[in-house]
Queue: 2 jobs
Job 1
Amino acid sequence: MAEAVRFKCDTCGHAIEAWSDGNPYYINDAGEKEYAYHPDHERLDRCIGNDSPHLCLNCGEEFMVDSEHPIQKCPKCKESKIVDTFLLDGHLCPFCSGGTFGKDPDFFCIS
Ligand SMILES: [Zn+2]
Ligand SMILES: [Zn+2]
């Protein structure tokens, strides 16, 4: 079961949605990466890795981090201030450089 939350900046209102389990993927017969979408449990069982969305707290770039090939730095600005979007609660907003992300209480869903 996956859980989604939305984090919202208390100053500029920039919102980012995040899923608790990222994007599990498997390698298909052609050797290509394919995502297993919910609720495809047969495919989920074959998954070997997970791409989880991250946010750069320096430049605001959103990108995927592959659990099999993790990166420690933002691909755009090369800063190491990156955070899993699901763990954004309490972090400083890179879009207005003044606000803080907090959980949006009006948004909650489960798949
Ligand atoms: Zn902001
Ligand atoms: Zn960056």
Job 2
Amino acid sequence: MAMVNVRRDVEDKFYRYKMPLLQIKVEGRGNGIKTVIPNMDDIARALNRPPTYPTKYFGCELGAQTSMASERYIVNGAHTADRLRELLDNFIEQFVLCTACKNPETELVITGKSGHENMHRDCKACGRQTTINMRHKLVAYILKNPVNKKEKGKKGKKGMTAEANVGGPMVFEKGAEDGSGEDEDASPSGTPAPGDQGVPTSGTDIDNVLGRSDPVLDNPDAAEEVSKKLAKTDLNGDDDDEEDADSPYAVLGGWLEDNKDASDADIIAQIKEQGIVGKHKVLVEVGHHLFTDEVGKEITKRIPLLQALVTSEKHQKSLLGGLERLLALSPNSDDLLAAGTTSKVLMALYQDDILDEELVKQWGTHVSKKYVDKEKSKKVRKSADAFLKWLDEADDESESE
Ligand SMILES: [Zn+2]
């Protein structure tokens, strides 16, 4: 196997840190063409990172879907080895090398409470901690798929470094020792349960979904049919359990995160595949993971999908909860909320009859820590002020008529 320096800008052949040269194999054709990286596992091992991180990084940088099931690391589309090697260099620069001494023996350490996480590189060579650009799209993925070898009860900063050495490349550190009680309410679905190994290999990524076509939503009658079916299956009772990383909801969430551009029909196919058709908690995942910071614009394109999925008050509440997470947990949350994004989104949902007036009003006046922590929950509602005021004024007007 051809080996290269982890830092390819270093020409010294005695440079200590080597990795296999990235190989590719382009498979399939047409819409289904994809680039397989057969030696991603070995590369990742040399970098002391899970193979999912660089693969996902390629996806982020190329705007391509990735698939990481059954230890096959795939980027959709045809890409050259040179391009991917360049991107791998960038990944190493941004997520591996110590920025102070350029040594690759680092660990990614996550600090802070759920919703307020921060991440840095902990360098074993020089001991310095250097920051990661939290705005990179890969960060959200890493936060959701941390390498968590820490065991329950081992908390606190003191033991961190020592444990990290034993425990693998990355340590997920909870911000506060006494925070565990709150986490249950505040934590988003991605945080692995204590004891969960959290190794992000398969599960969150589903095999290539391109090429699968389901004409459901191209046809309004069919959409209505789906909507009816979805409404029916909602009678299956409550589903408030299953917060763990393997739950169909978590899988759906991960898939949505990776496939934000998927067609409505593909999303519905995915919900079917997970066996959670009609469940209101589907909307938590959709609200949280289908959109980006541009949700104010994106939401209008997803109205038909949401109309098909939201079939009861419970569904509406779950959708609000998911959107609350999206807005509160974004690295740019403060900017988003200050810009009144919540109002924009609610307005679109209200005007297209996805949300009922009474329900939104109720939501707007009741801070809850069900989806994010209280402080954030307050902020999200404050960012809905303009819309809620508008609702009230519209009410007054119709009363005085
Ligand atoms: Zn260093």
